[in-house]
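notes to self, project folder thing:

trying the whole complex as one job this time. last attempt i did each chain seperately and stitching them together was a nightmare. two parts in total, labels are on each line so i dont mix them up again. if this works i'll redo the older ones the same way
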Amino acid sequence: MSSAKIEPMEKGFVFGLRQSLSIVVGYAPVAVTFGILATQFGISVWEAGLMSCFVFAGASQFIAIEMLHQGATAWMIGLTTLIVNIRHVLMSLSVVHFFPERSRTWSLGLAQGLTDETFVLNSRILKEVAEEEQRRRIMLGVNSGAFASWVIFTVLGGLIGKWLPVQFSGFQFALLALFIILTASSLSRKNLMTYILAGILAVVFKLLLPGKLYIILSVALAAGIGAVWKSRNDKLNH
Amino acid sequence: MNEINVTYVRYPPLETIGLREERRIMPIHFVETIFLMTLVTYGSRVLPFLLFKGTNVQGFVRNFIELVPIALLAALVIPELVTPGGSVVVLNNPYLWAGILTFLFARKIPNLFLGILFGMIVYWGLDKLMLVFH
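result (full assembly):
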């Protein structure tokens, strides 16, 4: 009957929130692990919660607590975070076209919750929604659900780590496992050479240079060489 | 030594810290760290929203930004797997073998939760096993 007409009108914040459940399921174990590791690295539950609240970017938070634990300076951690999180520029660039009429406030708000996961989900859902106002509300719902779960499960993990001092050496491998799983899903024929180059450079630089410098150097060099090579190929093909 | 001053003391240099050493994270340093992390992360998210209507970058810059994540994954993972203690180890190295197995597992079963669980358990098992046989 008329339900087919009404349904798209009803899509809004709550619809987005409900869609975010699939992200929540994935975030929960990662955030709990982050909370546990943070407390094991000598960071308090509230400090871990604050970091999740302000930064809201998984991989960089794991790296940051490890670097804090090893005694790195704030600047070094900031620089590493920039390298890890610069990819958000690309994701942000590719969602802004959904919101041509957005206000400054909407810009500031929608950008806050943009992560790898919310980006993928939003890109998929927003394509189907005709009206911009609705798209904004849906994205806000998706982002809010993901954000809330990330913070809540971080605190939960922190409390678990604090009250149950689990002696499980597997936690040492949690972050690496996360990165390896991300690698498994993003490695392709197009970027394999850059991956191998970055890996070799990173091992060599790590053996030669102090601290975590090797990360920034090998990433910049490998991505730079890969991009030059790809740009040249693109030109040849046109 | 006055206890209150401890809050303002900087971290000692990297070499003097044992990994297992227990201590409190210092608040000032922590606030600085969170501030800088938020600045660069939120900055990367919000700048395109503030500067662009809906255009995309092209050419070298786009290719570069697209390749950063995969290069980063290599730089974060491969040195940790190959040189966990500071020099190259192959055989008696639970990191390397747990890493390879986790990769194969994730290729078969693309589920973040199961993958992390698998990786941690395999690492724990190999770590125990290699201690026994060492």
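what i see at first glance: The CA atoms of residues 69 and 75 of chain B lie 10 Å apart.
need to look closer tmrw
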